[in-house]
UniProtKB/TrEMBL annotation:
InterPro entries: 3-OH-isobutyrate_DH-rel_CS (IPR002204), 6-PGluconate_DH-like_C_sf (IPR008927), 6PGD_dom2 (IPR013328), 6PGDH_NADP-bd (IPR006115), HIBADH-like_NADP-bd (IPR029154), HIBADH-related (IPR015815), NAD(P)-bd_dom_sf (IPR036291), Tartro_sem_red (IPR006398)
Protein's name in the database: 2-hydroxy-3-oxopropionate reductase GarR
MF GO annotations: 2-hydroxy-3-oxopropionate reductase activity; NAD binding; NADP binding
Species per Swiss-Prot/TrEMBL record: Clostridium aceticum
Organism superkingdom: Bacteria
UniProt lineage: Bacteria, Bacillati, Bacillota, Clostridia, Eubacteriales
Family to which the UniProt record says this protein belongs: Belongs to the HIBADH-related family.
Keywords: NAD, Oxidoreductase
Domain spans labelled 6-phosphogluconate dehydrogenase NADP-binding: 2-161
Gene expressing this chain: garR
Active-site residues annotated for this sequence: K170
3-hydroxyisobutyrate dehydrogenase-like NAD-binding domain ranges (all copies): 164-284
SUPFAM superfamilies (alphabetical): 6-phosphogluconate dehydrogenase C-terminal domain-like, NAD(P)-binding Rossmann-fold domains
Top EC class for this record: oxidoreductase
């Protein structure tokens, strides 16, 4: 099976590499030429346009920043929709607004092209290991048919419902991650200001109820002051925008998420938008005069 792969960034590049390793033939594209060259060196073909890739592949995976980029690549001029034959499947693994997924799904279905919204969680380390968590919306029969392709990149691939449901699950994930990083930051700042070594506090509490995947990933980064992304603040702001738009749409107040959004906006103003979301701690350092 030939697979198209569009978007070879922090996440897409290792995901595409894992598909090559698993023996799939890839046709790739990205605006960033060095990433394309890296895949080419591993044996991938390079597409000349999104439509060109779609004309050559049964499945096209997209891993792009947000809704506008996915809409442009899939539905725009020379986009996937122009090259794809009926029966082609687009697996969009980007994190985008559920409403945008449903719009793209409807436009593609008119041409008998199917869309799965299949965003991921786990960050760059799990993308490299091929142990991501994938949450999928769309037609169940399409999910079943392409489960094995997604499983190459993931430890878990879970069907959550109709089109857009995958991205609703991803928004829920992003709420938990954002609030958890803030909680870890507050705890480590408290330890420091109270005169106890934050690393020893981390060692003491990580095995208890407070322990979490977020704590394991982010507490060491915070203590080492390593804010290299990873997952950029800018992308998390994008996700929380999608969260708040969705929650306002369904009439659910999310007061803590709204507050963490303000914290992220504040550190973005300080020039941290391109840093890892672990840099949320800088907001608290400022408040605590550290
Ligand atoms: P990234 O910015 O590193 O990668 C995006 C890639 O898309 C870039 O290489 C860019 O050149 C390419 N691109 C943009 N527009 C394009 C276009 N029109 N045509 C072709 N290529 C185009 O971002 P990332 O961190 O890899 O994230 C990708 C998606 O995955 C985002 O939706 C993000 O929210 C989500 N995500 C990221 C992480 C993480 O830890 N980085 C974790 C889970 C989910």
């Amino acid at each position: 099976m030939k697979i198209g792969f569009i978007g070879l960034g922090i996440m897409g590049k290792p995901m595409a590499k894992n598909l090559v390793k698993a023996g799939y033939q890839l046709v790739v594209l990205d605006l960033n030429k060095p990433a394309v060259e890296e895949l080419k060196a591993l044996g991938a073909e390079v597409g000349t346009s999104n439509a060109d890739i779609a004309s050559k592949c049964e499945v096209i995976i997209t891993m792009l920043p947000n809704s506008p980029q996915v809409k442009q690549v899939v539905l725009g001029e020379n986009g996937v929709i122009e090259g794809a034959k009926p029966g082609t499947v687009v697996i969009d693994m980007s994190s985008i607004a559920p409403l945008a997924s449903r719009e793209i799904y409807a436009a593609l279905e008119e041409k008998e092209i199917h869309l799965l919204d299949a965003p991921v969680s786990g960050g760059e380390p799990k993308a490299i290991e091929g142990t991501l968590a994938v949450m999928v919306g769309g037609k169940k029969e399409v999910f079943d048919k392409y489960y094995d392709v997604m499983k190459v990149m993931a430890a878990s691939v879970v069907y959550v419902g109709e089109s857009g449901a995958g991205n609703v699950a991803k928004l829920c994930n992003q709420v938990v991650v954002a609030l958890n990083i803030s909680a870890v930051s507050e705890a480590l700042i408290l330890a420091k200001k109270a005169g106890v070594d934050p690393d020893l506090v981390y060692q003491a509490i990580r095995g208890g109820l407070a322990g979490s995947t977020v704590m394991e990933a982010k507490a060491p980064m915070i203590m080492d002051r390593n804010f290299q992304p990873g997952f950029r603040i800018d992308l998390h702001i994008k996700d929380l925008n999608n969260v708040l738009e969705t929650s306002h749409g369904v009439g659910v107040p999310l007061p803590l998420t709204a507050q963490v959004m303000e914290i992220m906006q504040a550190i973005k103003v300080d020039g941290c938008g391109v840093e890892d979301h672990a840099s949320i701690v800088k907001y608290y350092e400022k408040l605590a005069n550290i």
